[in-house]
Amino acid sequence: MGRSPRAVSFRLQAVGRLARPLIPLCLMLAPAVALSQDSLPQENFDYIGWDAYLGGPESSQYSALDQITKDNVSQLQVAWEYPIGPGQPPQFNPIVANGMMYVLRGDGKIAALDPATGREIWQSETTGRIGVRGINYWQSKDGSDRRLVFLNDGLLRAIDARTGKYIEGFSVDLRDALPEGSVVPPRPLMTNNPGRIFEDTIIISLPAGAYDYPSSPADIQAYDIRTGELKWVFHVVPRIGEFGSETWPEKDREKFGGVHNWSESTLDPELGIIYIPTGTARYDFYGGNREGDNLFANSLIAIDARTGERIWHFQTVHHDLWDFDLPVAPKLMTITKDGKKIPIVAQASKTGFLYVFDRRTGEPVWPIEEVPVPPSDVPGEHASPTQPIPTWPQPFARQRFTEEDINPYLPAEDQEKLRQLLRESRNEGPFTPPSLRGTISMPGHNGGANWGNVAVDPARQRLYVVSREIPLLIKLNELPNEEAAARAKERMPNAQDDTYPYTSPVNFLLQSNGMVAMKPPFSFLTAYDMNTGNILWRIPNGTISTLEAQGVEDVGAQASRGGPVATASGLLFVGTATDRTFRARDADTGEVLWEYKLDAATEGVPAVYEVDGRQFVTIPVGGVGHFANGLGLGEPGPSRYVTFALPGGGPQ
Predict the structure, then answer these.
(1) In whole angstroms, what is the distance from residue 223 CA to residue 209 CA?
(2) Is pLDDT above 60 for 19?
(3) Three-state SS at 647
(4) Which has the minimum average pLDDT: 331-340, 401-410, 486-495, 632-641?
């Protein structure tokens, strides 16, 4: 069932090896909701408030507030702090609405604060876990009904935004909408993706039900915000007969899962489109049981927010074997290319590629070519012979790891072991398939971009992305004996007589001193001019405190999650974990204009807002930081939200 390699510059449909014709554009759009290429959206987004995750439904991580400028940012000082107590270190992006700021405490309760002073107004009566990255605010047109809507122990729940009390009768178990015959987990499904609200509808994506071969599909579901009634479902693993069905085997269809929008999503309220980036089909590193391209895994899907109908899609990885899901919200703006205005959606990836489309039609702004990639040597595997590679813009992350790239700050013994590992492993580029002898994956599935890592400046047509440089080893292991293999085959969808499941431990190649295997910079902050696709500048993003103490600077932070936020005055606010520093940078050059040393990591997205004419910036602070436990950074300080403002409330 193979495919012959080919290079095409425009292919929205990733129709699988089982039947893979090149589809003309007229069939790539759902006719009922296809949009005119002549109509330009007005983009009347509210860039002043911060009443939704990442600032607004458009996920811009941008504020039009300009009281804090390049000239006065050096005067920023702490305006207030709010301690959240022990528990989960905060990653939560605060929202400001209804005259209150809403944050998540360490004990899992939501707190309402006075956004000007940090004074606590109330704590919610909620019990159980709440998604740690964000929540949704909604109010009726007359303002009489105001709600915070979120996942709570896997149930879709709501509280009164004025009191923190549960909305009676509003509780939805998302498992109820799973297709009949699905692998339904015993506990409610939970994700940290807060979803998006469109009009009176909340659109939420299920997480994958299990990290295994059989799992539930992570369908995208829409519910009435008042009643909890299910409005529509988009099947991320198409049912037999649905569009894309031929990209999966028919056998055991109900057992295939994954394809989860675990990360973030983006809404264009004017066009009525929600843009959903999806994840990997299960199992992440072996797909011999799921031959085909596996739509809609690893895809950017444009969906009609009112009906759930697909408008267009693009698959960035065919038959994923690397866990190269799309981990970050798509970004919207209007650019000018060759004298023509184009409303775009830009999708950053773990591979370091930036995919850019006309967001009305899905047509790539710059050509994307199907490029031959290495074959698999694992029995039963059918790796895709090609992968879609953008011809432009240039990648924002490194995509190779060789002996020349070994971290010089590792002990000599560790460096020698890495050289030996590189000589023994497959290492033929970012799409080298997993293998029994071991495959180097670079960028690995925690490299490139991740949640919260991308901000845009729609006024200047700029895009800013924080990237991580973390190679890893994918080494497939057969189950240890025939009995274990036989038991596993009973669980494995589409198992054949000659097909044995493989598993792979997660190996980030962290070394004895806690550092990654790759030489610095360990992370970058990259700025793109989206009118041309050119990289304006690219700099190391932060440093590591333990190296900084030895006089080694500008290596980039090893742990970089969350941030940045851009402002109309030409500033970028971004925090880092391994140097425990919050910075304001010049958006034109990347130069540090102000920094504030903290006693713990910053791994969330800042919130920028104003109260009575005074501009504030709030950042969550707490914990050691991702990939930072072995670096000897010392015990972190208390978890809290730290808020900054200019003294006196105005320009100085």
Answers:
(1) 20
(2) no
(3) helix
(4) 486-495
pLDDT tens for each residue of 382-414: 999 999 999 999 999 999 999 999 999 999 999
Note the pLDDT of residue 490.
60
Mean pLDDT of 613-637: 94
Q: Mapping DSSP to helix (H, G, I), strand (E, B) and coil, where does residue 65 land?
A: coil
Of 637, 644, 527, 624, which is closest to residue 81 (Cα–Cα)? 644
Which residue, chain included where needed, has tokens 């730290």? Answer: 642
- Token pair 């009489």 is found at 144
d(CA 293, CA 322) in angstroms, rounded, equals 14
State the average pLDDT over residues 523-535: 98
- Residue 147 contacts residue 159 (beta carbons within 8 Å): yes
Coil, helix or strand at residue 620:
strand
For residue 206, give the nearest of 229, 237, 227 by alpha carbon.
237
Position 14 scores a pLDDT of 33
**pLDDT at residue 435 is higher than 60:** yes
Alpha carbons 43 and 271: distance in angstroms, whole number: 9
Give the CA dihedral 329, 589, 407, 447, nearest 10 degrees: 10
Cα–Cα distance between 221 and 368 in angstroms, integer?
30
Strand partners, 146: 139
Provide the β-strand partners of residue 334: 343
DSSP-assigned states of every residue in 327-345: -S--EEEEEEETTEEEEEE
Q: How far apart are CA 60 and CA 96, in angstroms?
A: 16
3-state class (DSSP) for residue 370: strand
Task: Judge contact between 342 and 335, C-beta under 8 A.
Answer: yes
CA pair distance 631, 614, nearest whole angstrom? 39
The backbone torsions φ and ψ at residue 648, rounded to the nearest 5 degrees and listed phi first, read 80, -5
- Sign of the four-CA dihedral 59, 148, 139, 607: negative
Peptide bond before 296: cis, by omega within 30 degrees of 0? yes
Name the residue with higher pLDDT: 611 or 502.
611
Four-residue CA torsion sign, 498, 254, 30, 223: negative
Please check whether residue 219 is in contact with residue 238, taking contact to mean a CB–CB distance below 8 angstroms.
no
User: Rounded CA gap, 301 and 397, in Å?
Assistant: 24
Nearest Cα to Cα of residue 608 among 77, 66, 138, 132: 66
* φ and ψ of 253, to 5 deg: -55, -35
**φ, ψ dihedrals at 210, nearest 5°:** -155, 145
Q: Where are the alpha helices (DSSP H) in 389-481?
A: 412-424
pTM of the entire structure?
A: 0.93
pLDDT band at 491 (very low <50, low <70, confident <90, very high): low
Share of the chain above pLDDT 70, in %: 89
For residue 378, CA distances in Å to 256, 437, 438, 477, 478 come to 21, 10, 11, 11, 11
Query: Looking at the predicted structure, is the pLDDT value of residue 614 above 80?
Result: yes
Q: Do the beta carbons of residue 501 and residue 520 sit within 8 Å?
A: no
Buried b (16+ CB within 10 A) or exposed e, 301-328: bbbbbbbbebbbbbbbbbbbbbbbbbbb
d(CA 535, CA 521): 17
Confidence check: pLDDT of 297 > 80: yes
State the amino acid at position 481 in one-letter form: N
* Structure tokens, 537: 């500048």
Q: What is the mean pLDDT of residues 112-117?
A: 98
Tell me the mean pLDDT in the region 307-333.
98
Half-sphere exposure of 364 (CA within 13 A, CB side): 22
